[in-house]
Design a protein that fits this description.
Keywords: Signal. The chain is an alpha+beta fold. It is 44% helix and 27% strand. The N and C termini lie far apart (53 Å).
Length: 153
């Protein structure tokens, strides 16, 4: 009987450790989620005040996190994909693009954006003139006029 209880105890410990490890790899911790939402809320409210627009409150969404984690790398011509974090090669490209009026973070400031989900493990890379582009993506969802959109960032 003691042996059976010991085996059950070990199985529960192993399952608990392995599922915790998977969660930590995939998405943001509760503290990281809160910090992200706090920073986004503050920035969005400042932007809304400056532009005289109402910004819908955002919340963290675990379903969007799972979708962001499972999405295959986007095609280069898919303009709904916007990075959350990227390496110095992408940073150089975006610096040039900003001079032409492009902003990769513009979708974070859409007034009707309501949900966000991020993945730490979702990563794409591609070669570019002997240098590697690395981009981490997130997903934002919002609703407007009975339609909803999901974008990867």
């Amino acid at each position: 009987m003691k042996l059976v209880l010991a085996i059950i105890f070990v199985v529960f410990c192993v399952l608990g450790v392995s599922s915790h490890g998977i969660r930590a790899k995939r998405g943001l911790s509760a503290d990281e989620q809160k910090k992200l939402i706090d920073v986004l809320t503050k920035d969005r409210q400042e932007f809304g005040n400056k532009t005289d627009k109402y910004m819908f409150p955002m919340k963290y969404d675990m379903d969007l996190e799972k979708k962001a984690d499972s999405k295959p790398c986007p095609e280069s011509d898919d303009n709904t994909n916007v990075p959350l974090q990227y390496n110095s090669v992408i940073q150089e490209i975006y610096k040039l693009e900003r001079k032409r009026g492009f902003s990769a973070s513009a979708h974070f400031y859409w007034p009707t954006a309501t949900k966000i989900g991020c993945s730490k493990s979702y990563k794409c890379s591609s070669p570019l003139t002997e240098r590697e582009l690395i981009i981490y993506w997130t997903r934002v969802s919002w609703e407007n006029q009975n339609r909803s959109w999901n974008l990867f960032f």
